[in-house]
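Hi support team,

I submitted a single chain yesterday and got back a structure, but I'm not sure I'm reading the token output correctly. Could someone confirm the output below corresponds to the sequence I sent? I've pasted both exactly as they appear in my results page.

Thanks,
R.
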Amino acid sequence: MLQQTQVDTVIPYYDRWLERFPTLESVARTESDELLKSWEGLGYYARCRNFHEACRLVWSDHGGAIPMEWGAFRSLPGVGDYTAAAVLSIAFKQPYPVLDGNVRRVMARLLSYREPVGKGTAVFTKQLAEWLESDRPGDFNEAMMELGGEVCRSSNPRCSVCPVTHFCQSQRDGTVGDFPVKPKRKSRPHRTIVAGIIWRGAKFLIQKRPPDGLLGGLWEFPGGKVEKGESLSDALIREIEEETGLAVKAGKKAGAVDHADFSR
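Hi R., thanks for writing in. Yes, this is the structure output for that exact sequence:
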């Protein structure tokens, strides 16, 4: 839940989730629709689908015990290097350094790394592995993440209270504000989407999206993307016919919403 989402937003969802699904088995044996309903509002729904599938695999292939070997844990759906390192170090005391956004920022400033931080993965991981205390890897990783989140912040870093300021190259050079170097942002694409509300009596027509891809497994009104040079009403009629086989006429416009997509 904390991937791409702030702690304050996650806490109430986490509490409700644990109350409803307190064990790995309870997640594995629950239908995906019910899990997605509990996740509703957090966005990035692929996280929920991957977590569900991972729990099912752990239950069926590993006897309900979370695998402690890197390759087996890393192969679970939705698990990348960061998640694997965090879980294996914190839960199982294995010596894997964690590299998240906060740690990347700390490392970029400590080393005065002058390339975009995304290119520094190998450099940062190598250095962190040398610093990592093998008997307390989880404590080290949590400390580094907290250092980035609470002290070495992206704006207004608290250098005066930083416990590692004497190691920091950018602090010595007076260049803390120059790091981390960020890559140029790509412009966000803009798409126009239409959706139709079709009803008969007290019933509305909704359809389930394919399990893979954007908003997979969720329910929606039929519709789709407006093609270049196409009117909204023409696009709506075409999309509904393509998706449902129904021939419809466009009625009055119910409304419009502009939003940024953070729901993969």
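A quick pointer for reading it: The chain has a mean pLDDT of 93. Let us know if anything else looks off.

Best,
Support desk
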